[in-house]
Amino acid sequence: MELVFRKAEQNELSAALCDRNNLASARVIQNNGGVLENEVYSEAFSEIIQRYWIAI
Q1: Which of 25, 38, 39, 42 has the fewest CB atoms within 10 Å distance of its CB?
Q2: b/e for 27-44, b at 16 or more Cβ within 10 A?
């Protein structure tokens, strides 16, 4: 996940997604400044997805 953040910095991306049950990914996102925007149900994955914003 940290590699994803380094790649995102290069491309100036500022959003990250993870499923609500993936606590490890959520922790990495939060430890890198991610702020939870919302949770939405994904019919494609049949689970709740969390959307985070990260200031890059």
Answers
A1: 38
A2: ebbeebebeeeeeeeeee
Quickly tell me which residue has 């949770």 as its tokens: 39
Q: Indicate the pLDDT class of residue 16, thresholds 50, 70 and 90.
A: confident
Number of structural domains found in the chain: 1
Alpha helices (H) along 1-56: 2-11, 23-31
pTM (two decimals): 0.72
Strands 15-19 and 35-42: unpaired
- What are the pLDDT digits (tens) for 18-44? 999 999 999 999 998 999 999 999 999
